[in-house]
Structures are given as structure tokens and as C-alpha cells.
Amino acid sequence: MPLQVSQLSERPSWKALKAHRSLFDEKNIKELFAEDPQRGEKMNLNAAGLFLDFSKNRITEKTLELLLKLAEESGLRERIDSMFRGDKINISENRSVLHVALRTPKNEKIIVDGEDVVPKVHEVLEKMASFADSVRSGEWKGYSGKRIKNIINIGIGGSDLGPVMAYEALRYYSERSMTFRFVSNVDSTDFVEATRDLDPSETLFIVSSKTFGTLETLNNAHSARDWLVRGFGDDQKAVAKHFVAVSTNAEKVAAFGIDTQNMFGFWDWVGGRYSMDSAIGLSTMLAIGPKHFNAMLAGFHEIDEHFRTAPFEKNLPVILGLLSIWYNDFFDAQTVAVLPYDQYLKRFPAYLQQLTMESNGKHVTLDGKKVDTQTGPIYWGEPGTNGQHSFYQLIHQGTRLIPCDFITFYKSLNPLGRHHDLLVSNVFAQAEALAFGKTKEQVQAEGTPDALVPHRVFEGNRPSNILLADLLTPETLGKLVALYEHNVFTQGAIWGIDSFDQWGVELGKILAQKIIPELDGPTTPILKHDSSTNHLISLYREKKISSHE
Ligand code: F6P
């Protein structure tokens, strides 16, 4: 039986890990490699077409053993089974957590509230496919009979980051005769820049919002409708051919004026940040076509099955999750850098930020008690090699510990001369430099003047993982995303938190609703905020009025 979730620091394995951690005050990664010359060939995993080298970590076999024990004591197995069974593990919202159902093959069943959800998933996928085919083939025409050439997804958070990331990641496979844009920010610049060179008669908007109640998305959708209708001489009937919606809320979609025939549904058991493979991926399917989209789903499913069935010591997401816990909770590492060495993955770190931080940025356990350990680390990153010429300095020689996940591919989608070898050589070199550094003696032996020696020493002992796959295909992207989804799940299960709610975003939204009329109301408001907020509101009103005079 797992212990009470609030007693994480009391678990025997946690205490044992705490004691074990002192070993690494004396021993660094270089010494660990010296002790076991085969370490680099042993500490890796190869599953579902992904290869993970995790040898350059501050761990021994004993560390792994204790971390795996922690996973067991924390009831990880039971939590995984509960998720796949459709139990309502999102307890603060009383919801199942079933993004895994979005990629479950047709012949399998997942029962939620007495109903098999798999046929519903496939019904929507088929509707998406026939719509995508008709738009891509030119059969679906705009109101004036022109072919649709431009797709604009309007959404924010999970209704934007997944679609943008996937579009960028799979651009190689996309229909190049079409233009794809993504509007998310309530800053009007986002919408204006996205539409400035487009012809409304060739443009289709996908309004993506799980709730269809998000301020940013609804405001952008209204501006989009005004822009479109203006382009058709104020003919409202044009909307039907140029707007579709993706949502769980048919009533609100209808109230906005989109025919629910042109709506693609999903369900409350799909969290926003876990929704890129639901109908929220409609823009992705329009870009890459149904066949590639299905290949992406197959990639997701392969990792789902691996996560569900592989023993923990061979389980990629479990090992990655445990390593994050190790640094976050036992070495006070505050962040994890995700460094994709593939230009197409340039938005992957941004996507992961919502996935990881909205999921595990929690301060209470499932039973509502304050956590007694640190929870979610900060995820960040940029594609390589660009990051090397900006922030890597701090990772190599700064005072903070930043575990890194390097991601790269054996092959390039765009082979060109020596580029790919140069790219991959940098991944290997960075990980090597981080782990092994450069000693004072090595620096001196190069004839470095004494005064400069300390500046040129690399302490090393900086941990990293290297994740390798064959080629960035839709299938591989599905695998990578599922890998991080379940990595996040593993971490959340150990901390005993609800990784599937996001109450932390609410307060700011409520306060903004209160401030909006104070900024744009005709009369000077009586302000009842703190003195700073009151002053800022008054200043803004003053400047706004004076700029209109
Ligand atoms: O405010 C946070 C959030 O609720 C995210 O969790 C979600 O992905 C995003 O807003 C967008 O929500 P929706 O899809 O309902 O518009």
C-alpha cells in the first residue's frame, strides 16, 4: 500500500536517498566513469525507437535502485493503472485523465462513466480527416468560391502551444501551398500581424478553445469575424465557410455563431495541455494530412504502451521522471534545460513549459496538505546550437546546477554537406564538456598564464541526458511528446500532487475582469486595490486620455 501522500519525506526510500546523496559530495561523474569503464554502454535504454543515454548523471546503480524503490513506495504502478483505467485521478476537478484514449486503436475499449470512449475518439478523428481532405483538396471552398489557402488557429495555452509546436516540428511534411498561422495573444498586434497580408476570401479560422470561454481566444475570434465579414462587404453569411470550432462546449460555440456542424469536439477528460492529439490538432492535420496525423498518434500510443507495461527500470518516462526528482529534490536544482538539436523542434521547449509547469507547479498534495518537498522544476530551453552561443556559459561555469536533456536525431530531414555531423558533434561535445570539464592541470598544460587559469577551468560534473531517435517523423514527434507527458506524470505521482488541474491561473483572470472596466470605463473609477495597483490604473487612464487629446 502506498503511504499517505503527505508523508513523502518520511518514506523509507526518501530517507535512504537523502543519506545516499552525500556520496556525490565526494564523487563526481568523471570518477564514476573511471570506476566503471563500461558505464557509458550500460546506463542507457532503448525502447520504442528512442535511445536514452543517462550515464552522465550523478547516479550509481544504488541511486537507481533507491529511486525505483521510491516509485514503488509512492504507488506509481497503481497511479498508472488508474489513469489508463479512466479513474477520476484529477481529483480537484473530479475528472478522468485520458489523453491516452486519444491515441487508442479502434479495437480497444476504455470505459468512462459506463461508456466506451474509444468509438467517440475515432468518430471525431474521421470527421477531422474528411474535413482536412476536403480543405486540402480544394473541395471545401470559401464563401466566394475560392480555394482556402490560409489557416489561422486562434487559441491559447494548450489550444495554441501544441498546434504551433507540432506545425513547426512537422513543417517538412506540411502542405507547402498553404499558409498556417497561430494567433494566441490578446495583444492586437498578434492578430493584426497574422492577417495583414492575407485575403479573407482564402482564409479559414479554427477557433480552438476547450471551454470556449477564454478571454484572449474569444476576443481574437470576434476580431477575426469582424475582419472576415468586412472583407465580404459585411455579409455575415460568409462566416459559415470561414470559421470552424474545436471545443468541448457546443452551446458556447453556437452562441458565438459557428454552426455546430462545423465543430470538432473533445471531452473534459482531455486536459488542455494534453490535447494536441485531440481535435485541437485540427490545424496539424490540415497541415500534414490525416495519414501523417495518424502516424503521430501511433507514435504516442507506442510510448503509452511502453509506459504502461515496461518494468520501471526499463521504462523511459519513469527513469526520466525519477532523474528529475533526484536533482530537483536532492540537489536543489531549480530548472531543467531541454535542448533540442533540430531546428524543427524550436517550439518544443515552449510547449513543454506548459506541459510540465502547469501540471506540476503545485503546492499541496492530493489530500490538500502542504507538500513537504519541492515540486515541479522550471523547464526551459532553446534549440541547439544557438543556445551554446548565449546561455550555455552559465550551465558550464555558473554556480547553479542545471540538468540538461539533449534531443537529437541520427539523420537530418534536410541533409546538406557536413551540417548534420557538425550539429550532432556539438550535442556529444556539450554533454562531454558538461560531465567531464577541464581541470586546472589541463588548463596549465596548455600554457595558460597563471592569472587566467581559474577562469578557464571547467569543474564538470554537470549532468545531462541524451535522447536520440532516427529521424524527426510524425511518429517520432508523438513518441517525444508522450515521453514527456508520462515523465511529468511520474514526477507528479511521486510528489502525490494533482498534475491535471490548474487553479493557479484563476486569480489573475478574475482580477483582470475587475480591472478591465476600470481601464476602459467612461468615468473615473473609485479604486479599491492596493496602492500600487490603484496608482498604475490611474496613470494608465491619464496617459490614455492624454494620448487621445
Ligand atoms: O488559463 C489556463 C488554461 O486554462 C490552460 O490550461 C488552457 O490550455 C488554456 O487556458 C486555454 O483554455 P481553453 O482551451 O479553454 O481556451
The major pleated sheet works out as: 6 strands, mixed
Shape descriptor reads globular
Mean pLDDT across all amino acids: 97
Which regions contain 5 or more consecutive residues with pLDDT less than 50? none
**What small molecules does this complex bind?**
6-O-phosphono-beta-D-fructofuranose
Strand order of the largest sheet: 1-2-13-12-10-11
Structural class label: alpha/beta
Helix content: 40-55%
- Whole-angstrom Rg: 25 Å
Number of helices: 22
- Count of extended strands: 13
Distance between the termini: 70 Å
Strand content: 5-15%
Walk me through this protein's architecture.
The protein has helices spanning 12-21, 23-26, 29-35, 39-42, 61-73, 76-85, 118-137, 161-169, 188-195, 215-231, 239-242, 250-256, 282-309, 316-330, 348-360, 392-397, 419-436, 440-445, 453-456, 474-495, 506-520, 531-548; strands at 44-47, 50-53, 111-112, 115-116, 150-154, 179-183, 203-208, 243-247, 263-265, 335-340, 378-380, 404-409, 464-469. With 549 residues, it is of the alpha/beta class. A 6-stranded mixed beta sheet has the order 1-2-13-12-10-11, with helices on both faces. Helix 13 (282-309) packs across helix 20 (474-495). The radius of gyration is 25 Å and the shape is globular. The mean pLDDT is 97. 6-O-phosphono-beta-D-fructofuranose binds next to loops.
